[in-house]
Amino acid sequence: MCDNGIVLVHSSVTARCKLSPAGYERMFRIRRSLNRLYNDSLEERKRAYQERKQKLSFYDQCKVLTKLRQSNEHGLGSIAVGPARGMLKRLDQAFKSFFRRVKVGQKPGYPRFRALARCVTIDVTSIRPSVLRDCGTYYAIRIKGFPRIQCYPSQTLPDSRQLQSLRLTLRGRHWHASMVYQLEQAATEPATAATGIDVGVRKRMTLSNGKTYKPHKRNWKRMRKAQRAVARCQKRSQTRRKRVARLARYRRREFVSQRNALHRATTEIVRSYGLIAVERLKVVNLTRSAKGTEEAPGTNVNAKAGLNREILSQNWSLLFSQLEYKAEWAGREYVEVDPKHTSQDCHRCGARNHPKRSETYRCAACGLTMDRDQNAAINILAAGVLAAGASTWAVTSCVAPEPYAGTSIRKFGI
Ligand SMILES: [Zn+2]
Questions:
Q1: How far is the centre of ligand 1, averaged over its atoms, from the C-alpha of 391 (Å)?
Q2: What average pLDDT is seen over the chain?
Q3: By C-alpha distance, which of 348, 381, 375, 347 is closest to 360?
Q4: Which of 122, 231, 300, 347 could bridge to 378 as Cys pair (CB 3.0-4.6 Å)?
Q5: Spatial separation of the C-alpha atoms in residues 377 and 276, rounded to whole Å
Q6: Distance of CA 169 from the midpoint of ligand 1 (Å)
Q7: pLDDT (tens digit, 9 = 90+) per residue, 239-250?
Q8: Distance 265 CA to ligand 1 centre (A)
Q9: From the CA of 374, how far away is ligand 1's center (Å)?
Q10: Which are the contacts of 154, defined by CB distance < 8 A and separation ≥ 6?
Q11: Where are the domains positioned within the chain?
């Protein structure tokens, strides 16, 4: 963050693109040659290691690319170098992730050769401001060797000198462009209030002051209908392809509307609170199947499967990542606390109860009766304030939720 009240933020814009029929054809050929480059480079890395025990780096492969471009291999010489380098970067990233996972003792799969159908993203590296030009009703994307691409964003784009990266993605039949800008923004007003957030399935979020956010309601019925329609089709038929595309469209629509709702909620939270405490949840562990083994079959398998589906549909990881980066931009404190017992302990007296499935939390020791999720959110807030350290957030400065003023802050589980 800069001192003069200006912060640098990354802002991304995605927009639908339009091309001429010949343009689509040209993009298909570009995609094919870039995919070949990817597969050939993967082969090269593999062989260099097997035959000469040599580890090729991104830069080694860029040198090879220069030669390929000189001899116009796969038509790479006729398109700009940026997209080709972007492909090599992608391969490099695949190898890096592979070795990183090997190092920590996981069992990752070795980077695979890619079918053309899976090659849908073109990263344009080393971009110049001239790549994007304002043409009044649309923006023109101009890359050497590429067809004319008209881009229709829903907002006026910032100055293209601030453009950091450009990515073209083929979604179904359409190309989309996503641009990342580095912008200067006025720093967010400082906030002194703190909040704890409890995430759930019936309510997406409950804040420690009792404010709730509605969960994302998926249109399961429509989705299932579309899935069954796909299942009924003959493999490789034209109808199947159309129905798969329809299902993908529904999925995409659902995701976008959910992501937008999350953006609205997280921006609001980050604007109003200086300290944001959340649970450190491991979604993978939470959504483990209840099936068990053949010898020891689990119980309530269907119910757990349903719950897992609901949990996964809430996209908590996206929620937490949005909160985290927005908190960083705004200079807010973001704390993850251990979720252990947060929904069982009474925030007022500290007694441990077992609320079971009831929405209401009742404390057997002190008689507290309140919303279960809010009780958990207050516990998370208390743990968050402690974790953030008294120097930044003195325990007394923690604003107790309105109707429950006088909340004592206890230490637990961190
Ligand atoms: Zn109590």
A1: 28
A2: 85
A3: 375
A4: 347
A5: 11
A6: 54
A7: 999 999 999 999
A8: 31
A9: 14
A10: 15
A11: 6-186, 194-404
